[in-house]
């Protein structure tokens, strides 16, 4: 029974259409199908789907092909088999059987070829997979060998790196010790520099205090000189005012018209000019001192190095020396210009003493006489007019 079923499976017809996208055939067992004139068999589903839009065969692509619908079920075959050959002559029967056998053989050959091509494809695919697997295995073996070589190299490099790390750690310790020593030296140098800076600051403060004391002394001396000059000017003014009153009294006592007193010779007092020049010099010196103080403060704020401070101090000393030299060069010319003025000032007190002694003696002698009355009704306002005696 099993052999009959197997034989029946081999003898049955199957659909020849390769409808799948990957080219696999349909292979469905048919009980009803469509047969073409080119000996191809299709199921109802594929025949309708293809021949509704096409006229040629989907396998051999022949031109307009004729189609015949056949019932291939075993029951219909049995019914037709009993009466299909009735009425035919032997040649016709042979011809019909030949056509039927050729169709069946064509179908089986087509199935065999198709199965062989499929198996060939599978074999080629297996060969490709084997080759790919072998190539992958070879690549894996080479990769393993390379990895083993790399592992050996890494081990060697690890040993070398361990040695280098030990050397570097020793060098680092040595460098750290050197850095600590350098830091200690730098700290000592900084302390020394700070001490030197403090000493310089103290020296600068002492110099500033000395300069301030000198300025105060100069200002006090200038004030004393100004007071003396003012006293001398006041005394000279009092003498000048006392002279005309005495001479007018003498002329009125004798009835004479007072003669206008000659304009006093204006004696230039150069003391204020000298004071102004000294004030200007003091102002200039004060400005210079202020500038030096500002420069010193800026240098202290900026924390300039020791060498720069020494350089600035040297420059200041040179400038001061130049100024002193210039002042020393100008001093003789200034003293020569002041010499005649000092002589005139010395002569003024002598003249004032002579005039004061003459005025005192004349006043004492004329005071004994009776002075005539004076009126202010003269041709000139303030001039005395003599009365006539009756």
UniProtKB/TrEMBL annotation:
UniProt superkingdom: Eukaryota
Residue ranges of the region described as Disordered: 222-390
Protein's GO biological process? reciprocal meiotic recombination
User: What InterPro entries does the record point to?
Assistant: CCNB1IP1, Znf_RING/FYVE/PHD
Report TM segments: none
Composition bias type Low complexity, residue spans:
222-236, 278-294, 313-326, 333-362
Q: Which GO terms describe its cellular component?
A: synaptonemal complex
| Gene Ontology terms, MF aspect | ubiquitin protein ligase activity
The identity of this protein, by name, is: RING-type domain-containing protein
Source organism of the structure: Polarella glacialis (Dinoflagellate)
- Lineage of the native species? Eukaryota, Sar, Alveolata, Dinophyceae, Suessiales
